[in-house]
Amino acid sequence: MPEKVVPGPVCEDRSIREAVCIHTKKIFDSCKDKDCIEDIRVYPTRSSQAVIDRAQSVKAGTAELLYAYIDVEPINFNRGFYTVDVRYFYRITADAFVGAARPVEVTGLAIFDKRVVLFGSEGSSKIFSTGVVGEGPEIQNLPQTNLPSAVVEAVDPIILNLKLMDACNCHCCDNSYLDIPPAITAVFQEDLIVDGDIHRMFVTLGQFSIIRLERDTQLLIPVYDYCLPEKECTCGCGCECQEDPCEMFRKVQFPFNEFFPPNSIQSKGNTTYQEVRSGCCS
Predict the structure, then answer these.
(1) pTM score of the predicted model
(2) Cα dist from 131 to 23, 29, 134, 140, 275, whole Å
(3) Which residues pair with 164 in a beta bridge?
């Protein structure tokens, strides 16, 4: 049976100098997801809603993930597991076509709720810590419960579909009571319309995300050496170390792609569009 590794010098492997204890966050559980969010309502700004009510059609623009609100709750009947509720807030932009005039850009808010169940282990201790502010004395931080921390990593979604519907034909619930955080409404600089509309806009999004549960823990890890910087600090003493601009320009590679367009283009969705040559099929 191998002996237990304890902090101190390690003799078995000469490349490892010692084993040390560190305080860090350990990932207990994680999951990745590819959500297709169908027909979620877009709440436009007041000026955008006036355009949408007169619009005959809309064309998708962009979707931007503004914020993700996260809530973690333990599952009483399954010890060590937690529900992670995430509410995503998106800013949706689109082009609305009114008659034969040029399209008008409209914008609004879309909301998506997601729940996952992850393992986060157990811990009943209460955490107390201190901190230092400037030159003043140490201050006592507020005590924390030993719940795991949820982390959500997500990218801006892809708009898969966008459509208009008459408000009277929408079989969706009344969201006039919708609770939107003030920080989100401040992004739009106008009131968001939740009722009293003629046309409503619905969007289908493709969302990629990774959700994990972490805990503060102490780990015993091997240490190879101290992290010593290899690069020297330069040009920190004034203008005398500035490089000659012509010499700097000579090091810049010639931008051939600006003069000769490439045969393939990598789009934002990682789709490659190849050159099509007439009279040749592959």
Answers:
(1) 0.73
(2) 16, 30, 10, 7, 60
(3) 201
